[in-house]
Specification:
CATH superfamily of the largest domain: Immunoglobulins
CATH architecture of the largest domain: Sandwich
Shape: globular
Number of helices: 27
Number of strands: 22
CATH class of the largest domain: Mainly Beta
CATH topology of the largest domain: Immunoglobulin-like
Mean pLDDT: 94
Structural class: alpha+beta
Strand order of the largest sheet: 11-10-12-19-22
């Protein structure tokens, strides 16, 4: 399964090379099997009927709590019974063809896929066919005997009969557990086989395009066992997907898998409040909302006056009538072990709304406040990714078959931060009695953007959509209303007071140094010409820690961020000095080693980058990003053998990484690989490169689509809007 390793014996071409005669290899993406474009495979020698795969009834007798939780989960409503999914896959089938829709089916419609129903016309998938209402069942996850890192359902199903336990027969229970608790079951790799996906010619897309990518963000974070991204003051420890999404819960129905009266939750609780609302399940809506609250923080971090003076942080800054005051709002991903928001990031709808009121409670400015109602609001900042079609137009309704290139992505990696700047035109008539001004920022979430909501609702009202809803009531006892209003969750709130002190009852702000650090961290994602905006906040955070006797780890954390800033600005000596200081406080931290490698690589001193990159790779071997760095540095330093080895390690984790495939092809050519091997590696590299016309499409979006040019700037300015006259 997974990446196909092609090995060819070959002598290296370079004269005097001590490794002359070694074996060269290329790690190449494996083509899909007979169920392609899905990567689903069956164990050799047996077929697996879809009716068997959809069986849940044989499980419920012993596992009533597990099945009850599963019936409420998004996995349970993954197939044509889900109006959101159905509108997307049926558009794909209509515009690209039935076979291409197998791409979706491996992770959504295993019974339909196995029985060949995806290969025929859409009418063959009847609304009253129980296979289209099955979703991802017990037999799918508990029948996976092997997984591969590709994504697009890169797993192999056992296709064996499951021996059922017999009361009083302990040996039969052991046999049953051995059959359903297969090796991949409790691993992140099992989840990643579907929560990583990619598009390409076989799915009807013109070029290769990474799609949903929760797995890579997880692997490059502390949740995945890597400490390379940054020093953090929170001890997270490696966490699997199951750690967060399958917590232990009570088993009141007497589930036989319970230990101490508790089981691993099979609700797979996440952010899908809309699906819970479709079912009319208020308890599940509340559960999902509670899961979301506090997943990220929000802060009104600094105020910047027109004369360039800053208030670090913004609290209590002076306000001058008639001035244009800039306010930086920072959102930090605190708890998600993948990007926030995650999943299908092009359809996410998490946004900031900001309101400024005077001392009398009168609204004087706002931004993003109309977004909740679905009105066009150019002031709304949405944490989403936008993908373009072949004309450079944004696609908002999960039209994956039309995807050509992403144009921007405002979602936030684990433990990282994102900033957006707001401009407040202070009213010219503002007087002392109007102060202080209260600025309130809210981070709000709903499951999907309203364009997709409208499309799913309209489809649900068609004759076919109504037939699926009726069948769902009969087959599953659930009435899904795709037109129900989506719940909105307050993920986080923050407020500051300008032009005066906060009231005594106001919540105490978080530590000043931490707020400044997070602001600087966010600005490290800014454009090159603006990245120095991070410096005042990071230096102020460090000064605050030194003044108050902050913990060594906290000071090392800020110094590491300052070193990252020096790297971004090609200041090698300054970066190394910051790193040396951080090392004295926190010796040997892997993030410092990685940043040291970046410092040399940024100024093209690739040979000197190799040693720190090797150490970083040894500290986080499951993080694809470090193998990419090491492979690029080695190839650039004239060490193609090491580049090839590093590329192979990275491709074993993420087989379709275009940069690693490119380095592999270059290294093989330089090492004198046989023509067939070199040609295969080059072909794979070219197939997975960034689309040649991506810059043109992004430029077209910037030129012709309102707001696109603004949103392409990672940290940009939204003008606060004066309230409409009453």
């Amino acid at each position: 399964m997974g990446a196909l390793v092609v090995v060819v014996a070959s002598s290296r071409a370079a004269a005097g090379d001590p490794s002359r005669g070694t074996t060269l290899a290329a790690v190449l993406p494996q083509p899909a099997g007979r169920l392609g474009p899905s990567r689903v495979e069956l164990a050799p020698g047996r077929d697996l009927p879809g009716a068997t795969q959809m069986d849940v009834d044989s499980c419920v007798g012993c596992h009533p709590d597990v099945v009850a939780g599963w019936r409420e989960s998004a996995h349970s409503f993954a197939s044509f019974n889900n109006p959101i999914y159905r509108v997307a896959i049926e558009r794909l089938r209509a515009e690209r063809g039935p076979k291409e829709s197998r791409f979706c089916a491996g992770c959504h419609d295993v019974p339909l896929l196995l029985d060949g129903l995806l290969d025929g016309p859409t009418e063959a998938i009847r609304p009253d066919d129980a296979r289209g209402h099955a979703g991802i069942t017990c037999r799918t996850c508990h029948g996976i005997e092997a997984v591969a890192p590709d994504g697009n359902a890169s797993f192999r199903l056992t296709a064996h009969d499951i021996p059922m336990p017999v009361d009083g027969d302990a040996a039969s229970v052991v046999r049953h557990v051995e059959a359903v608790a297969l090796r991949p079951l409790r691993t992140t790799s099992l989840c990643a086989s579907c929560h990583r996906s990619f598009l390409g010619p076989e799915t009807g897309n013109a070029f290769h395009l990474p799609a949903q990518e929760d797995a890579t963000a997880h692997a490059a974070s502390e949740y995945g066992g890597s400490s390379l991204a940054r020093i953090d003051d929170v001890e997270i420890g490696a966490k699997s997907c199951q750690s967060c999404h399958m917590p232990r819960e009570a088993a009141p129905l007497g589930d036989r898998a319970a230990t101490g009266g508790r089981i691993a939750s099979h609700r797979f609780t996440g952010a899908h409040t809309w699906l819970a609302a479709m079912r009319g399940d208020a308890a599940d809506v509340a559960r999902a909302k509670e899961f979301l609250r506090g997943a990220a923080s929000i802060d009104i971090a600094i105020a910047l006056h027109a004369d360039g003076t800053r208030s670090l942080p913004a609290d209590g800054t002076s306000v001058r009538a008639g001035e244009r005051l800039l306010l930086d709002v920072v959102v930090r991903n605190l708890r998600a072990g993948h990007r926030f928001p995650g999943g299908v990031v092009d359809a996410q709808d998490t946004w900031i709304d900001l309101a400024v009121t005077d001392a009398r409670g009168r609204l004087i400015a706002e931004a993003g406040t109309r977004h909740a109602a679905g009105a066009a609001d150019e002031t709304a900042h949405v944490l989403t990714a936008v993908v373009l079609d072949e004309q450079g137009r944004p696609l908002l309704e999960r039209e994956t078959h039309r995807f050509r290139t992403p144009v921007y992505n405002h979602t936030i990696p684990p433990r990282d931060a994102h900033a957006v700047r707001y401009a407040l035109g202070v009213p010219a008539g503002l007087g002392a009695a109007d102060l202080p001004l209260r600025v309130t920022a809210r981070l709000r979430h709903r499951t999907r953007n309203l364009a997709l909501h409208a499309a799913a609702c309209a489809d649900a009202r068609t004759p076919r959509g109504r037939a699926f809803r009726i069948a769902g009531r009969r087959l599953r006892g659930v009435d899904l209303d795709a037109c129900v209003a989506q719940p909105i969750t307050e993920v986080a709130t923050a407020e500051v007071f300008l032009g005066g002190s906060a009231p005594a009852a106001a919540p105490a702000p978080r530590p000043r140094w931490r707020r400044l650090y997070e602001h600087g961290l966010a600005w490290l994602r800014g454009l090159q010409e603006k990245v120095d905006e991070a410096r005042p906040s990071l230096e102020a955070a460090l000064a605050e820690l030194e003044r108050t006797g902050g913990a060594p780890r906290d000071r090392a954390m800020v110094l590491a961020a300052l070193a990252e800033l020096e790297v971004r600005q090609w200041r090698l000596a300054d970066a190394l000095a910051r790193l040396d200081e951080a090392e004295r406080l926190l010796p040997g931290h892997p993030a410092l080693t990685r940043i040291r490698g970046d410092a040399y690589a940024q100024v093209w001193r690739f040979a000197e980058a190799l040693a720190p990159y090797r150490l970083a790779a040894a500290a986080a071997p499951v993080d694809p990003s470090i193998w990419r760095r090491l492979a690029l540095a080695a190839q650039s330093a004239g060490a193609p053998g090491e580049a090839l080895a590093a590329a192979a390690r990275g491709l074993a984790l993420i087989p379709r990484d275009g940069e690693l495939l490119r380095v592999q092809a270059l290294a093989l050519r330089e090492l004198g690989a046989p023509a067939a091997l070199a040609a295969s590696a080059l072909a794979a590299s070219l197939e997975h490169r960034v689309a040649d016309d991506a810059p043109r499409l992004r430029g077209s979006c910037s030129k012709y689509v309102p707001g696109c040019a603004l949103e392409r700037d990672p940290v940009h300015v939204h003008e606060l809007r004066a309230p409409a006259p009453r």
